[in-house]
Design brief:
The protein has helices at residues 15-21, 40-46, 51-62, 68-79, 113-116, 119-129, 145-154, 173-180, 196-207, 210-218, 231-234, 236-250, 270-280, 297-304, 329-336, 341-354, 361-370, 378-392, 398-414, 432-440, 450-461, 488-495, and strands spanning 3-5, 30-32, 91-93, 98-102, 135-141, 160-167, 187-193, 221-224, 260-265, 285-292, 306-308, 356-358, 371-375, 420-424, 481-484. By secondary structure, the protein is an alpha/beta fold. The structure holds pyridoxal-5'-phosphate.
Length: 497
């Protein structure tokens, strides 16, 4: 399988080269030149497979420049090496129609582990295959979840160094503690005196500094990023959509071949795009329900065909979805426009120049055949956390709550009660303050820090705190560097000496 740019750049890339390069030279994103399809016979053979076997089957269609042995090693190191429980992605049934796919059983208790545990494995193999053996230096600006998931994924990875920048006062106590206690010989974590935008801009400036890139090249380093535009982060997310479907078949909640809905809390559009890719590969999907929070650019786009990022940024209780420019949407536009790279490139130019673009009728109609979208306010999100707990004695985090609220809206609006899977993207204990307040009221959190609330939430609900979040406040702090935005480049320089 080869990969090409969404914006029409002529060369095709192997999987290894696409993963190492990250972004195409014309600024486009790498997409598979065509989608492999499982016919019904092949699909039947997938039933009953464990997560690793299923992942190997799916990757063997996409990662064709790896040997079977290399692929198997990548998959087993990622999902069977002790970072995940035996079932990495359990499906919990709440009602006859609503099921929850829990994607937060990895080392950082958020769904980004599903991809960031295997990306370093892919990268290590790709480095060995590349013509000049190089080392890769990964820089990441994080508003919370990505940084920790990348640190856990790249810990002690061969030939890779990782530097995470986070805004000094822009992440939660838990998230900060998760990052600054991270062990690993090849890692560094630095707080930046600024907000997330400053931090991200600082990283982008380093990426586009050609002279600095040359200096690093002389030292044997190529700069790369671990964010969700890398195709090596996207493909692993396809696996769990098949896995969830097959789990429901295995439990006889659906019959093989019947269509189901998926509900996905959406930010940068990576997770939900993988669901769309799964559908293109033959997974029986009725509707992909796209749930956004108050930053509802994507819902508005799906309703109107106009993408308008020129609006106030709203800081919400589902921070991982607080995004106004949803990068992976570009890959959907490419497919839905019938691979019209020229129009995709023009749209992205418009976005850059004016913050707005619009697509033609045919494209938006195509999108609406697969997708349905709406958003949840913060108040609705809090009410959903409380209702789901009261009705099912089940705890959900604020991102998952956005999904379930929008699912309820979907059922009311369409009357469709077909079996559905809501994708759960973070452990409720990771956002314990919001969850405890939503269920037990403001007095449950007043005067308490997040570590106290964590214990309290567990005691009140009888649910176990995930191991990665337990005892976090007692772990030694290993990273305490702080820098100004203007000092970020010097920090990278020092780290890569
Ligand atoms: C990153 C993240 C999301 C958004 O996923 P995208 O792939 O960016 O759409 C949703 N929920 C949580 C908890 C996340 O960490």
């Amino acid at each position: 399988m080869m990969y090409k740019s969404t914006r029409g750049y002529s060369a095709e890339y192997s999987f290894s080269d696409a993963v190492l390069t990250g972004i195409a030279p014309d600024g486009g994103l790498f997409v598979p030149v065509k989608f492999p399809r499982f016919d019904s016979l092949e699909f039947a053979e997938l039933c009953g497979m464990d997560y690793c076997s299923l992942a190997i089957e799916i990757f063997s269609k996409f990662v064709t420049d790896f040997t079977k042995a290399e692929l198997e090693r990548c998959v087993r190191n990622a999902y069977a090496g002790g970072s995940f429980p035996q079932d990495p992605a359990p499906v919990v049934s709440l009602s006859s129609s609503l099921n929850v796919l829990e994607l937060w059983h990895g080392p950082t208790s958020a769904f980004k582990d599903m991809a960031l545990q295997i990306l370093p494995e892919f990268l290590s193999v790709a480095i060995k295959k590349s013509e000049q053996h190089r080392k890769v230096a990964i820089l990441t600006a994080t508003s919370g979840d990505t940084g920790k998931a990348a640190l856990a994924g790249f810990q002690d990875a061969e030939d890779v160094k990782l530097l995470v920048f986070y805004p000094e006062n822009g992440v939660s106590e838990m998230q900060k503690r998760q990052m600054v206690t991270q062990e690993g010989r090849n890692l560094s974590v630095i707080a930046v005196r600024g907000n997330f935008d400053d931090t991200q801009t600082g990283v982008k400036n380093i990426f586009t500094d050609a002279a600095f890139a040359e200096t690093l090249k002389e030292r044997g380093y190529t700069l790369s990023s671990a964010n969700s535009i890398n195709i090596g982060r996207l493909l692993p997310q396809i696996v769990y959509y098949f896995y969830a479907y097959l789990s429901l078949v295995g439990k006889r909640r659906i019959s093989a071949g019947s269509k189901i809905n998926f509900v996905v809390p959406t930010g940068n559009f990576g997770n939900i795009l993988a669901c769309y890719y799964a559908e293109k590969m033959g997974l029986p999907v009725n509707r992909i329900i796209c749930a956004t929070n108050d930053n509802n650019v994507v819902s508005d786009f799906m309703a109107t065909g106009v993408y308008n990022s020129k609006r106030p940024f709203i800081q919400t209780i589902s921070p991982a979805m607080d995004i106004l420019v949803s990068s992976n949407l570009e890959r959907l536009l490419y497919e839905a426009s019938g691979n019209d790279a020229q129009s995709v490139a023009a749209d992205q130019e418009d976005l850059k120049a004016s913050g707005v673009y619009s697509v033609d009728k045919k494209t938006i109609n195509n999108i609406n055949q697969s997708f349905w979208s709406s958003y949840a306010s913060q108040e609705e999100c809090r009410a959903t956390i409380k209702n789901v707990y009261q009705e099912f004695h089940y705890l959900i985090d604020p991102h998952t709550a956005v999904g379930i609220d929008v699912y309820d809206k979907y059922v009311i609006s369409t009357g469709d009660t077909a079996p559905s899977v809501a994708v759960s993207t973070a452990s409720p204990f990771k956002f314990n303050k919001t969850v405890a307040e939503a269920i037990f009221g403001p007095e449950a959190i007043s005067g308490r820090n997040e570590f106290e609330i964590l214990e309290d939430l567990s005691a009140k609900t009888g649910q176990t705190i995930p191991a990665p979040l337990r005892d976090l406040d007692r772990k030694p702090i290993l990273h305490n560097k702080v820098c100004e935005v203007s000092g970020m480049k010097a920090a990278v320089d020092a780290f890569l000496q």
